[in-house]
Structure formats: C-alpha cells, structure tokens
C-alpha cells in the first residue's frame, strides 16, 4: 500500500514523512487551516527526494496559478478538489488526481466514471473540500475491489489496519490522523506508515 501524507507545512513534518517511508507528500494551496504559500512550499520541497512524489492540492484555482506553482515547487502531481471539468484536468501539464466527496454508491459511481488519471474518495464535510478527518461508510466501496484509487477521510493509526482489510486501497491519504492538537506529529507519522505498510520501516 502506498501512502501520501498531506497538509505538510513544516520542515520537521516533511522530514518525518520522508524518513519513515511516505510515497508522496502533499502541499495544500487551497483555503484550509493547512494552507501553505508557494514560497514556503518551495523551501520545503528541498527536503523531498526524487523518489517521493510532491503533490499540490487546489480547489477551483485558475490554470495559470496551478501551472506557476507546479513549476516553481516542482510538483509531480496536481490534486483537484473543486468542480473542475475533465477538459480542465486534461489541459494541465502534469498528471492529476480528482478528489470526490462520497456518501453513497451513486457518488462512487459518478467518481469512477470521471476520466481522471486517479480518483481520490473522501468524506463529505465542512466548508473546506477535504481534510476534515471524517470517515465515510466504506461499504459503498465494495464495487471498487481490485481497482486503483486513493482512500482518504478520517484515516489514523487507529483504523488504518481496518481500512487495509476492508477496503484494500492502492493508496491512502492521511492528514489530520497524524496530527496532535492540529500539528503534524512525527511519531504518529511513523506509526501510521509502519501500520499501512505492514511492518517496521528502516530509518533513512
């Protein structure tokens, strides 16, 4: 199972994600308590090796701004959480993840029919698009067994093993589940990665 640690805003959090084996790290450039400025992300990206993907999260942003940030931060993937059309997604210069808030089988069907490189399934939540730490009913995902998608929404050290058993996603995306009092917790990052990947990860 591959793991993305999202909403990183500090050097210590980025270094912990890399040290303990994250496959991708996420910078949020959309309205959120974890929002980061382009200049800050540029500095943090220096601590991300080439084998770890850098993902930028956007919500209904203009193409020009997305492309500027992607270029300056050297993003590998663009993650869209808004109302972006397939045409908009396919006009981008980098591979894209399209995120969907789901609460029913119908929502899941709509998501899998969207022509994206990868889809991310999250819980419906508050005023922000994603990142609110809520688990949705995984039973609505039974039709996706064997398909590649990203599971998000309320994942933590307490339920990641259950998610592996019941959902078996190709990727998982965690943010608030590796925080303590709203701040990324290096030990929770370590523990989550160990549990998600099924064993201890050698420190780099």
Automatic annotation (TrEMBL):
Please name the pathway.
Amino-acid biosynthesis; L-tryptophan biosynthesis; L-tryptophan from chorismate: step 3/5
Pfam families associated with the record: PRAI
Q: Which Gene3D superfamilies match?
A: Aldolase class I
Record-level GO BP terms? L-tryptophan biosynthetic process
Task: Enumerate the CDD domains for this protein.
Answer: PRAI
Coiled-coil annotation: which residues? none
Task: Identify the enzyme class.
Answer: isomerase
Q: What's in the keyword line of the UniProt record?
A: Amino-acid biosynthesis, Aromatic amino acid biosynthesis, Isomerase, Tryptophan biosynthesis
Q: What Enzyme Commission number(s) appear in the record?
A: 5.3.1.24
Q: Which reaction does it catalyse?
A: N-(5-phospho-beta-D-ribosyl)anthranilate = 1-(2-carboxyphenylamino)-1-deoxy-D-ribulose 5-phosphate
The record places domain N-(5'phosphoribosyl) anthranilate isomerase (PRAI) at: 3-194
Which InterPro entries does this chain map to?
Aldolase_TIM, PRAI_dom, RibuloseP-bd_barrel, TrpF_fam
The molecular function terms of the Gene Ontology recorded here are: phosphoribosylanthranilate isomerase activity
Q: Which PANTHER family match?
A: N-(5'-PHOSPHORIBOSYL)ANTHRANILATE ISOMERASE (PTHR42894)
Family of the protein in this entry: Belongs to the TrpF family.
Name-wise, this protein is N-(5'-phosphoribosyl)anthranilate isomerase
Give the organism, scientific name.
Answer: Bacillus coahuilensis p1.1.43
Q: Which gene encodes it?
A: trpF
């Amino acid at each position: 199972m591959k793991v993305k640690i999202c909403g990183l805003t500090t050097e210590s959090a980025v270094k912990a994600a890399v040290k303990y084996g994250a496959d991708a790290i996420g910078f949020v450039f959309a309205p959120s308590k974890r929002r980061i400025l382009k200049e800050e992300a540029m500095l943090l990206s220096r601590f991300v090796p080439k084998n770890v993907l850098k993902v930028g999260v956007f919500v209904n942003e203009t193409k020009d701004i997305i492309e500027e940030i992607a270029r300056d931060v050297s993003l590998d993937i663009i993650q869209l959480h808004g109302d972006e059309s397939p045409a908009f997604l396919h006009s981008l210069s980098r591979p894209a993840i399209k995120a969907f808030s789901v609460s029913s089988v119908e929502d899941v069907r709509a998501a899998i029919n969207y022509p994206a490189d990868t889809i991310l399934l999250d819980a419906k939540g508050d005023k922000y698009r994603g990142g609110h730490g809520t688990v949705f009913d995984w039973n609505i995902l039974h039709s996706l067994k064997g398909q590649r998608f990203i599971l998000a929404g309320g994942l933590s050290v307490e339920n990641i093993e259950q998610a592996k058993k019941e959902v078996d996603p190709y990727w998982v995306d965690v943010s608030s589940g590796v925080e303590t009092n709203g701040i990324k917790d290096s030990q929770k990052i370590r523990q989550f990665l160990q549990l998600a990947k099924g064993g201890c990860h050698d420190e780099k």
